[in-house]
C-alpha cells in the first residue's frame, strides 16, 4: 500500500510541478480522442474536417481553451460530417446540439466532460463507467448530459443506417420523411431508453451513497452502483426486450467498478482508523464534526553523517602503529 501511495503522490507532485506543460498536454490528448470518436461515429463524410491534420490542429487549439469551447468545436465537426452526408441529418443534429449547449452546458460547465467523452466511452464499450464517475464527481446535474451523450451515440447509429439506406436506392425521400425516420427510430430505440433510465438511477444511487458520512462510503457507492447497473440492465433487457449483450453488461460493469476505484484512489485516500469527532457551537448552531485524516506519504528525512577525514586518517595510522593518544 505504501508503494502505491508513493507512486500516486509522485504522479500528483509531478503534475503539480509541471502543470503548465502537463495540463495542456492532457487537454490535447483528450481533445484528440474526442475528435476521433466524433469522426468515427459520424462516418467522416466531410473529408476536409475529418482529415488527420485538421483534427490534430483542432486538438492543439483545444489544449488552450475552456472545455465548453472544445465541446462547441466538437459539435461543429459532427455537424459538418452529418451535413455532408445528408442535410436533414445535419439539421436534426444541430438542433439537438444547440438546445443542449445553450440550455445546459453554459450553466453547468462542470458536467461538460460527460457529454464530450460519452461517444468515446460508447465506442470502446466502456460507457458503464460514466454514471458511476458522474455520480462520484459531478452529481445529479450530470443526468441530462449523460442522457444527451447516449442520444448522440444512438442518433449516430440511426443516422449511419439512414445514410446507408439512401446509398442503396436512387429514390430520394422527402425532407419530412427523413426527419420522421431519424426521430422515430430514436423514440422507438429500446436500448437507448434502457440506457438513459439505468444510467440516471445508477448515478443517483452512487451519488447518494458517496455523500454519506459513514466509513468506506466512497467504495460502497462504487460497488453498489456497479451491482445496480448489472441488475437493472439485465432486468431491463428482459422487460423491454432490448438487445444489449449480457456479456458486455457484466464485463463493462466490472471494469467500471475497477476504474472508479482507481479514480478514487488518485483523488483521495483516507485513514478511518484515526477518525476524530468533535463538537463546538456558535451563536446560531451547534456543530458535530467528524474529521477523517487523509493518507499522505511524506518524504523520509535523510540523516547525513559528516565524517572528519583528517581525524579518521590519524585514527587509522595510530591503530596500525599501536600508538595511543
Could you describe the 3D structure shown?
- The chain is mainly alpha-helical.
- Among the domains are: 123-270, no CATH class; 277-321, no CATH class.
- 70% of the residues lie in helices and 4% in strands.
- It contains 13 helices and 2 strands, in the order ααααααααααααββα.
- It has helices spanning 2-17, 19-42, 52-62, 67-85, 87-105, 112-123, 129-137, 143-168, 175-188, 190-210, 217-239, 246-267, 309-321; strands at 276-281, 286-291.
- A two-stranded antiparallel ribbon has the order 1-2.
- Helix 2 (19-42) crosses helix 6, helix 4 packs across helix 6 and helix 8 (143-168) packs antiparallel against helix 10 (190-210).
- The radius of gyration is 28 Å and the shape is globular.
- Keywords: Membrane, Transmembrane, Transmembrane helix.
- The chain crosses the membrane at residues 21-41, 53-79, 91-108, 128-155, 192-210, 216-240, 249-266.
Give descriptors for this structure.
325 residues, mainly alpha, two-stranded antiparallel sheet, 70% helix
Instruction: Give the strand tally.
Output: 2
Quaternary state reads: single chain
Uncertain segments are 301-307
Shape: globular
What is the strand arrangement across the widest sheet?
A: 1-2
SS element count, helices: 13
Rg: 28 Å
- Percentage of residues in DSSP E strands: under 5%
How far apart the termini lie comes to 53 Å
Q: Given the helix and strand composition, which structural class is it?
A: mainly alpha
Helicity, in percent?
over 70%
Order of helices and strands: HHHHHHHHHHHHEEH
Largest sheet: 2 strands, antiparallel
Mean pLDDT: 82
Transmembrane segments: 21-41, 53-79, 91-108, 128-155, 192-210, 216-240, 249-266
Keywords: Membrane, Transmembrane, Transmembrane helix
